[in-house]
Amino acid sequence: xxxxxxxxxxxELASDLVxxxxxxxxxxxxxxxxxxxxxxxxSPIGILLDEARLKKTSFNCCGVSHTxxxxxxxxxxxxHYGLRLGEDVTWFETCPxxxxxIVLFExxxxx
Length: 111
Hints:
single chain, 111 residues, mainly alpha, two-stranded parallel ribbon, 5 helices, 2 strands, 11% strand, globular
């Protein structure tokens, strides 16, 4: 469920920033598959996925792709952190404290 909520928030933020194209990546394969389908989702989180699918249509180009969790630790941690906050928080040009060590570790792996 966290991934579906995060996808909705990401699409809404990108729309608010008036972006014309974006790529949404996630490690929950069932969520990614659902977002790439045209049919309505009848799962317990179907309403969230239908809403995200509708938000995708506001972009000239909106790609949705799957990535392995090992390559997505920071995002996964941030999505779960966001669910516990109970309010919307956005960081620009800074790294959220809850994922600083993960981002530092992963950036060192890529050097």
